[in-house]
Amino acid sequence: MRGWIGALALLCAGSPAVAQEPARCSVPEYLVLAEQPLPRVAAAAKARQLNIAVVGSGSTMLAGSDGTSAAYPARLEAALVRRMPSLAVKVTPFAKGRQTAQDMVKGFPQIMADLKPDLVVWQTGTVDAIRGVEPDQFRIVLERGIKIVQRARADVILMNMQYSPRTEMLIALGPYAVTMRVVAQQMGVPLFDRLSLMRRWSEDGQFDLYAAHRDTGLAKRVHDCLGKAVAAMIVSSGAFQGVIPLAPRVQ
Fold it and tell me: DSSP code of 94?
């Protein structure tokens, strides 16, 4: 599986689709290793067509006329297309601000029926933490949502909260992040640890996340790196091994 992490070097190269300074993404391998397989993604790869739904709340989106193309779902699609040009990839975002996990799960049956995705990237947790939803109730909802997606014959990647040094002391994200990790392990689905990755970026000085709320260019570069990192996790699952020849590595 580690051989697939070579994909990260390309996936984290600068993206010409973002007008601002190209993002250079330093991502530790352990944060993008999919320790669980993605069998539906593998089946879709054999058919040369991959359909992904990204379900999330406000941090899935970016403001502005080019916000949709610069947000991480679109950057995920661009990274996968660039890395696997023979694979038709479509990433469709379903995002609405202030939604709890329970709010999102209510929409899952319709999403699965209409889109029929091979993979659902489910980003949640922040609104539940802000509203003080009991972690045990949060866990139950996560398990219910994963089961709905799996019964519809799709894989799941859980994505936890974004990190913000401005709100770190105000919102108790820890219990919800732990719950998501436990649920992911127990139900055999990968967890994309956005919280740890963004905290590392902040501590390393790669991104000034104190300024991200007012610097749209910085926010776009962060989203570009997030999309590439999620793509690297999907590649690391081995779902494309022996099926889709990877594009040549670009320095």
Answer: E
